[in-house]
Specification:
2 copies of one chain form a homodimer. The first copy, chain A, is mainly alpha-helical. In chain A, 50% of the residues lie in helices and 6% in strands. In chain A, strand 1 and strand 2 form a beta hairpin. The complex binds iron/sulfur cluster (SF4) (2 copies). One iron/sulfur cluster binds next to helix 6 of chain A. The structure holds a DNA duplex.
Amino acid sequence: MKLSKTSEYAIRILSYMAKDSDKLYSAKLLVEKLNVSDKYLRKLMTLLSKAGFIKSMQGRYGGYKFAKDIKNIYISNIIDAIEGSEKYLGCILGLDDCSDENPCSMHEVWVTTRAKLISTFEKTSLYKISQTEIIKF
Amino acid sequence: MKLSKTSEYAIRILSYMAKDSDKLYSAKLLVEKLNVSDKYLRKLMTLLSKAGFIKSMQGRYGGYKFAKDIKNIYISNIIDAIEGSEKYLGCILGLDDCSDENPCSMHEVWVTTRAKLISTFEKTSLYKISQTEIIKF
DNA sequence: CTCAAATACCACTTCGGTGTAGTATTTGCA
DNA sequence: TGCAAATACTACACCGAAGTGGTATTTGAG
Ligand code: SF4
Ligand code: SF4
């Protein structure tokens, strides 16, 4: 019942960057501030670049900055890019073939819960997160 | 955002057995009916025995049957026994150290969603599940 | 008593997510 | 131009969950 570590990291990194969304961030700085290993963070940054959330500047004084308005980046977009939506859209019991017509007794409450979770992801933008003070990353 | 495969299997198996909760089920039958590999199911059955949900009868015409009233076995009990409650009680972003006092902007809606999910698990017994027709396992 | 048919146990393999290492490439500035 | 400091890339190591194989043990029927 958790997102993958990679999704966690991605949300953490982008949330952190969203605090000053025009700034250019180096991998070195992010590694120091956030709790992600150097190599893994760099790999992830490249992935996030290719996904279009950020753009990278190589060379001396390079780094990463947002490629688009953080008001248009939602948590659901990030999760989709990293692990695909199936990972959190499916049934909690893993039974793909049953439907609303053939439900088990957990179905109704599960579907309701799931819907709420999804709508949370789809409605929460990085901008919104940046408006809240986060002490610990 | 999913339970482990093992939890899925456990819930599937016990839900199936709950349809006729006094019957003695052989591993062979369960393997045929449910979609779990022979060896893995047998290993899991031993684990479920040790956890006290079922008891096993060895020898010729042996098998498994419930060790207690299925009205007293809740989904949350099963998940706890297999993967521990931490796995689905924590924060979705994996940041253990922030609290209700230092929340990010997802916190409130996440906590609400999580609470609903947990209460679903804690209120749904195998008996309740058995009352609903499940076509596909 | 013997055997068939069932579970229990131990050890190994496989696989995907996570993390690491080393090297190549880019780029601005002295 | 040459170097320092940054990112990009490729390949491999690690680890826990999932899955498999083979053997030992139990037990009732005949
Ligand atoms: S009926 Fe039950 S098992 Fe099937 S999708 Fe709904 S919650 Fe999952
Ligand atoms: S504030 Fe709440 S939802 Fe946000 S990261 Fe912390 S525990 Fe998770």
